[in-house]
Structures are given as structure tokens and as C-alpha cells.
Amino acid sequence: MRGKFAILCAVGLALCLGAGALRAQTPEADISWPELARDIFKGQPLNDGKGLLSIEMPYRAEDAAIVPVTLRIALPAGDTRSVKTITLIIDQNPSPVAATFTIDPGISMISTRVRVNSYTSVHAVAELSDGALYVVETYVKASGGCSAPAAKDTQDAKVNLGLMRFRQFAAPKQAPASTPREAQIMIRHPNNSGLQMDQITHLYVPLFIVDRLRVWQGDRLLLSMEGGISISENPNIRFAYRPNGAATFRAEASDTDGHVFRAEWPAAQSDM
Q1: What's the total number of domains in the chain?
Q2: Model confidence over 122-180: pLDDT tens digits?
Q3: Nearest Cα to 249, choosing from 163, 164, 162, 166?
Q4: Residue 54's closest CA among 82, 96, 86?
Q5: Is residue 258 part of a domain?
């Protein structure tokens, strides 16, 4: 899977750089979703995911470099299957696969921020425990997100590279211990897409992204993410999970330069 992401990123980067600096800011001709889906999912049939999976994004993005996206899982009553993975695809981005999330059955929501390069359809594809694939779609108006300059101070990013923060959100009052809760992982990282231009040298900033993140509740792996160039600067993942009584959460992230970042937090601590 990580090899697939590397190939997709490299191909997308080469196509964009070969066409010049302005190409990343110009809406491309519509790519056929059936063709794209066939390439990514090897021709497997995609079923209508309405009622099982939803995708929420603003119709018109305020900032194309940090567009919020929320994926929600809601299996119909009586459906004994579980969702194994969700793949987020931004059709018109240079590397369309933004991320693939592998999730624990207790995960019911994932939210993050992405770059959107031009007006585009966005698809989310869930793979269920029986191998079936289900797709939902939305549409976003935005442009230039993949080539937008970094918003943070470069020196600060180097000093705090890989710094991770964890936040748990309070459960509803008097709710049972098993009631789903939400938590958030934030990683300090420039997540350079390879399409951004240094404002001083006018050279392209090399690709430098968090390509993998894993989060555990105790010894149980809650979710893992394989990310591409579309994940925004300072990756931020919020998720809804089912508590299992573990005393700690821990996370491990790696980037394309081989850095590995690790952190651990007490489960009872609400904000760090």
C-alpha cells in the first residue's frame, strides 16, 4: 500500500512540474471517475454507499489549502459487517488518493483537512469486512491548494518537527463508559506537497510529507492512515471511537524523509 502511495505521488508530481508552475493553479479537464476508480480499485465493482457512509465538505472552500472533510460511518441496523478501510479521493488533484484509513470497528467518524487543487468531485470508498466496496461523492469549488505556500514559519517547523499533541473531548454527562467519544491527533509537520514554490529562491520545495500515522488505544490499533500530498500542513486527525478502558493512547508517525515520531498520553487526560 505504501508503495502505491509513493508511485501516485511521484506520477502526479512529475506531471504537474512538467507542465509548468501555473498548471497546479489551473482547473484540469474532467477526469473520468469510472476510469480513475478502475485504476485505484483494480476494476472491483463499487456499490452506492448512501446510508452506510457519508462525506461532508464545504461546497465552496474558504481556503483551498485547508479544506475540512469529515467521513461518517453508519451501518444499517442488523448489518453485522464492519468497515475495514476508507479511501479518500480528490479526483482532480495531481495525486488523487489523499489518504487511506484502516480503522477499528469502533471508529464511526474521521475528520481531517485537505488541499484541493481545482474544482473537483471528491469520493470516499469504504471497504467492508466482506470485501465489498461502497462509494459516496461530493463536490468542492476550490483552486490552488496543492501549490499554496506554507502558512507557518519555516524555522519553527524545523525546530518542532514531529511534535504531536493529543486531545480527548469530554463524554456526555452521565453517559455509560462505552459511549463513543472523540479524540484528536495533531502533528507539527510542513507536509510539503512538492508543488509549492519557495518565495525567495523561486525553486520548488521538495516533497516532504507524513506518509503514515498509527494510533493505539492501549494495545489496540484504532486507526492507521497512509497519506499523500493532499493532506494539509500540520496534519490534524479527529476521530470518534469506542472506549475500551485502556489507560493510555499512543501514536507513531513517519514521513518521506525517514523520520519516525512517537508519543504517548494518559487516556484520562483531556488536553495536552
Answers
A1: 1
A2: 999 999 999 999 999 999 999 999 999 887 566 667 789 999 999 999 877 766 766 88
A3: 166
A4: 86
A5: yes
Say which CATH number the domain at 258 has: 2.60.40.2470
C-alpha Rg value of the chain to the nearest Å: 18
Residue 76 domain boundaries: 2-266
Kindly state whether residue 272 falls inside one of the protein's structural domains. no
pTM strictly above 0.90: no
With vertex at residue 80, the alpha carbon angle to CA 76 and CA 85, rounded to the nearest 5 degrees, is 85
Collapsing DSSP states into helix, strand and coil, what is residue 256? coil
Written as nine digits, the cell of 44 is 472491483
What is the Cα–Cα distance from 241 to 246, expressed in whole angstroms? 13
Nearest to 234 by CA among 209, 206, 201: 209
CB atoms within 10 A of CB 69: 24
In a domain, 271, yes or no: no
Would residue 53 count as lying in a domain?
yes
